[in-house]
TrEMBL record:
Location of the ABC transporter domain: 2-227
Any one GO molecular-function label of the UniProt entry: ATP binding
Highest taxon above the source species: Bacteria
Protein name per UniProt: ATP-binding cassette domain-containing protein
Pfam name, any one: ABC_tran
Family, similarity comment: Belongs to the ABC transporter superfamily.
PANTHER family: ABC TRANSPORTER, ATP-BINDING PROTEIN
Gene3D superfamilies in UniProt: P-loop containing nucleotide triphosphate hydrolases
Keywords: ATP-binding, Nucleotide-binding, Transport
Family annotation (InterPro entries): AAA+_ATPase, ABC_transporter-like_ATP-bd, P-loop_NTPase
Length: 237
């Protein structure tokens, strides 16, 4: 379970998060949507202990990230890029991570297989395509077989086969009782994958509920999204 309660983040005079609250529940895939600059990545970074909130709490199974006893087995995250050094191979990167976390090398081969990167595991990360980099980031997130997955834009850059794979994979994770939170700008694709939806705009939650509740009387989630996030002047955020 992920729980965000009254989260506020200020940077100088700018309020990036204005007291947001939502939950991502076990057994469900929760989609996190919003225009560029809405505050999605800032929320995820605070949740993962990569940034501090001005006030409010972001809890993972009832605890802040820093207090988790087994962080890798509790939560796996794939944010921007894979974080791997370009001159390392994908396998070496994962082995280094596994070693740091006290996980066996055999787990590296398992996650490479899960994300479909076994054949490319010996190539340098600098030679990877965008989609391969995404798969490597996903492999790293899965190393500890976590009960919670947090993914920022996981399908961006994946080919159609990769998009189908990730959709099926995330549904299976949720159906076996895990929690999945993912942000995406591909709303049509997201609507195929999620149970619950949270939509942000200008640092506030503008909608939150099941896919059906958020879609409401609109013909699709995409229509609901545009109605909820429309700016009279248009443009960013
Ligand atoms: N390190 C930073 N320093 C200053 N401002 C920042 C920083 N990180 C984010 N911001 C600002 O915080 C606001 C929210 O940005 P954030 O990246 O969380 O949005 P987002 O919803 O993830 O957007 P996108 O869809 O473009 O990824 C923006 O106004 C952004 O300019």
């Amino acid at each position: 379970m992920l729980e965000i309660r009254n989260l506020v983040k200020r940077r100088g005079a700018q309020e990036i998060l204005s007291g947001i609250s939502f939950k991502a529940r076990p057994g469900r895939v929760t989609g996190f949507l919003g225009p560029n600059g809405a505050g999605k990545s800032s929320t995820l970074r605070i949740l993962l202990g990569l940034d501090r909130a001005t006030s409010g709490t972001a809890l993972i199974n009832g605890k802040p990230f820093a207090q988790l006893h087994h962080p890798l087995a509790t939560v796996g995250a794939a944010l921007d890029g894979s974080g791997a050094h370009r001159s390392r191979t994908g396998r070496a990167h994962l082995r280094w991570m596994a070693c740091a976390a006290g996980l066996p090398r055999s787990r590296v081969e398992e996650v490479l297989e899960i994300v479909g990167l076994t054949k490319a595991a010996g190539q340098r990360v600098g030679k990877y395509s965008l989609g391969m980099g995404k798969r490597l980031g996903m492999a790293a997130a899965l190393l500890g077989d976590p009960e919670i997955l947090i993914l920022d834009e996981p399908v961006n850059g994946l080919d159609p086969e990769g998009i189908r794979w990730i959709r099926t994979f995330l549904r299976e994770r949720a159906e076996s009782g895990n929690t999945v939170l993912l942000s995406s700008h591909l709303i049509g694709e997201l609507a195929e994958t999620v149970d619950d939806v949270v939509i942000m705009k200008h640092g506030k939650i503008v909608a939150s509920g099941t896919l059906e509740e958020v879609t409401g009387y609109h013909s699709s989630l995409e229509e609901a999204y545009f109605a909820l996030t429309a700016d009279k002047a248009g443009g960013v955020g």
